[in-house]
Amino acid sequence: GENVEQHPSTLSVQEGDSAVIKCTYSDSASNYFPWYKQELGKRPQLIIDIRSNVGEKKDQRIAVTLNKTAKHFSLHITETQPEDSAVYFCAASPPTSGTYKYIFGTGTRLKVLA
Amino acid sequence: DTAVSQTPKYLVTQMGNDKSIKCEQNLGHDTMYWYKQDSKKFLKIMFSYNNKELIINETVPNRFSPKSPDKAHLNLHINSLELGDSAVYFCASSQDGFVSYEQYFGPGTRLTVT
User: Which residue has the higher pLDDT, A96 or B43?
Assistant: First the structure.
């Protein structure tokens, strides 16, 4: 089955710096890759996603890149702010018997230092 | 308006008891999910229903029984609770479980078994 690895598990950056979180997946049939942000005690919320027919997607300070050949995808946050501090999860969505489910990475705790 | 809601928010109970968690979505989505988030924040899918039909059933003890009375509701009943069941349980919904779409998460139910 699909396996998603996520690195690093924790990341501290100075306010204004960039942060990069990397994920790898194992099932080449996965075709959708969302990123979720989970603040302390809150629900996971989608911040950006990318489909397998696209190599890069950007939304203001957030961008995601996908390398299908290497089965890597990454989240890039530029000009980080204290409110970016949270746990970030990547996920891959492989087809399983005609349905789709998310396989989440293990999460990255991002701390933005003011 | 709350898109995906869960009750209760907190549940504290003793080992051996039976408890239920309820979930409702008002997004008109066809597919609903249950996830378990353990103390290390790892998010793992448990079940998925599409239009009241079970479509994903991960390796979960049969003490856990989901029920979907209609496509807007998905409940989770847990029998004979064990210490290891302590976790945050998230309900989620998506437009269609047969295509990869964004999943919207509920606020979570923190279950503590003593």
Answer: B43
